Amino acid sequence: MSGTRAAAPDVIGGAGDERLAPRSVARRLLGRPELGAVVGAAAVFLFFSFVADSFLRASSMGTVLYASSTIGIMAVPVALLMIGGEFDLSAGVMVTSSALISSMFSFQMTANTWVGVGVSLLVTLALGAFNGIMLVRTRLPSFIITLGTFLMLTGLNLGLTKLISGTVATKSISDMQGFPTCRDLFASHWTIGSVDLQVTILWWLGLVAVATWVLLRTRAGNWIFAAGGNADAARAVGVPVARTKVGLYVAVAFCAWISGQHLLFSFDVVQSGEGVGNEFLYIIAAVIGGCLMTGGYGSAIGSAVGAFIFGMASKGIVYAQWNPDWFQFFLGAMLLLATLLNVWVRRRAEASK
Known about the structure:
Layout: H1 2-13, H2 25-30, H3 35-51, H4 58-83, H5 91-109, H6 113-138, H7 142-165, H8 179-187, E1 189-192, E2 195-198, H9 199-217, H10 219-229, H11 231-236, H12 241-267, H13 278-288, H14 300-319, H15 327-351
């Protein structure tokens, strides 16, 4: 009995199993997936602070946060989907589809705009479920499934808009019942001092908080990491991999609906060709934020930091008054450097474990 009692503290204290050994705060921070993105964000912030005098103004920070939020709202579910081991190339076009459905249904049916918003929610969630169900039923790569959805939605957006409206843009619905309250929810803003803050920032931060709670505090979060890390092993221990992946695609669709309503109620009309290529911005933000392309690793907070880097880079170039002809080059170079720094920091962190 005494021997048993003597051995127990060693095991509990971690001497018998290194996985149970206590880790310092520094080591725990080094193990966080978003560490590299935080370092990259600090580097980008310092860079534009020196090259652009107006970058540090409070009003400029409001613009940077708005640009970050429009990317970040979609980067959050895309990051979760990547942690779950999948991609969604239709995410950018789905945002435009959601806005077009709300606008055209409200206008053609002469309905309250809330009715159009509700119909758009149902259709957009169905699009996400379609991607997920097609993925798990056919077992084709998500690249193929969502590329097909991307192409179909691109064609539908243009074809149906011209067929119904006669042009490539929707009709104005700003004078319809329900428009002001919809705009309050999806496209309002308030001013604090000289800073103009858009409601999308609240949507963005709220989604990051919910996604972080799901990933770190719920069984569904464990399922997402398990499905992305090793799907076969996850199935073997009872993880509902198919249901998890369908749910992730529906989450992407839900956030596409939020972004689409912001697009509609900010500008009143929607161009049918918008959104093409934005899916890559969402993926870039998630990757900069520490999500692995192979799945099973990443965080929602990292995607927020990645979106913030993107927002600083895109607006910092404007504040630096660089030649707009070089905009895409400078933007790509900044993002590449931030990603390389992120990878370097993560490798250093893994080497120190």
